[in-house]
Design goal:
This protein is 40% helix and 13% strand. The protein is of the alpha+beta class. It has a five-stranded mixed sheet. It is built from eight helices and five strands. The chain has one domain: Transposase IS200-like (Alpha-Beta Plaits, 2-Layer Sandwich), CATH 3.30.70.
Length: 224
C-alpha cells in the first residue's frame, strides 16, 4: 500500500493525529490525561504555539494547533510525544515502541474549516460510543466552546466569534452546530492533506506538488 504523501511545512494550522502503537492505550487513568494536558501547558509557556481544539482519547490524540517560524511543527510534536512517553514509561515500567510511527497532520485553511474540524474531533467520544453527548466527555475542548467552561489550554478559535453576537449566543450556536450539523461533521474526511476552499486546496497542491487525497471538496454549508 503506497505511503501517504508528507507535506514539508512547519508553519500553519494543523489537525494532528497521534496514535498508540498497535492501538494500545496511551491513557490508562485520569491522571494520565491530566499529565498530558500539563505537558501541553508547559510547552505552550516555553515556546509559542496555539491550541484551538483538542480531544484526548484512550489510545490516540487529536490536536488542532497553529505553529510559526519560532515553533516548528516536527520539533514541537517530538517534544510532546517524548515528554509524555517518558512519564508513562516511568509510571508503568513500560518498555518498547509507544507511539505508532510519525504523527499525521492535515493542513487547514484558517477560516470556518478550523471550526468544522474542531467539531469533528470533539465528536470522537460520541462516535466511539463512550458518551451519548460531547458535553459528557471531560478531555476535549467542546465544553469550552459550548458552555464557556474555563480551559487555560485553549486559544480561542478565531472563527468562533463569528457565529454569534455574544458568548451566550455563540455557545448556543456551537451546541446547535454539533447537533444539527451531525451529518456534515461525519462527512468530513481526514484522509487528505489539505482542508479548505477549492482555491486554498489548489494553491497547496501547486505549492507542494502533490494531489490532495480527498473524497469531496467545497465550503461547509453556512448557518441559516
Amino acid at each position: 500500500m503506497p505511503r501517504r504523501a508528507r507535506i514539508y511545512t512547519e508553519e500553519g494550522v494543523f489537525h494532528i493525529l497521534t496514535r498508540g502503537n498497535n492501538k494500545q492505550l496511551v491513557f490508562r487513568d485520569e491522571m494520565d490525561f491530566l499529565s498530558y494536558k500539563k505537558i501541553l501547558k508547559q510547552l505552550k509557556e516555553e515556546q509559542p504555539f496555539k491550541l484551538y481544539h483538542y480531544c484526548l482519547m484512550s489510545n490516540h490524540v487529536h490536536l488542532i494547533i497553529e505553529t510559526n517560524k519560532i515553533t516548528k511543527l516536527s520539533k514541537l510534536m517530538k517534544r510532546i510525544n517524548l515528554f509524555y512517553y517518558n512519564q508513562y514509561r516511568k509510571k508503568y515500567d513500560y518498555t518498547g515502541h509507544f507511539w505508532q510511527g510519525r504523527f499525521k497532520s492535515l493542513l487547514i485553511e484558517k477560516n470556518e474549516y478550523l471550526l468544522a474540524c474542531g467539531l469533528y474531533i470533539e465528536r470522537n467520544p460520541v462516535r466511539a460510543k463512550i458518551v451519548d453527548s460531547a458535553s459528557e466527555y471531560a478531555h476535549s475542548s467542546y465544553n469550552y466552546y459550548a458552555y464557556g467552561k474555563e480551559d487555560k489550554l485553549i486559544d480561542r478559535d478565531i472563527y468562533y466569534d463569528e457565529i454569534g453576537q455574544n458568548n451566550r449566543n455563540r455557545q448556543k450556536e456551537y451546541r446547535r452546530l454539533m447537533l444539527d450539523k451531525e451529518k456534515d461533521i461525519e462527512s468530513i474526511k481526514l484522509n487528505q492533506l489539505f482542508m479548505g476552499t477549492n482555491e486554498f486546496i489548489k494553491q497547496m497542491e501547486n505549492k507542494f506538488k502533490v494531489n490532495n487525497i480527498s473524497l469531496s471538496r467545497g465550503r461547509p454549508e453556512k448557518k441559516k
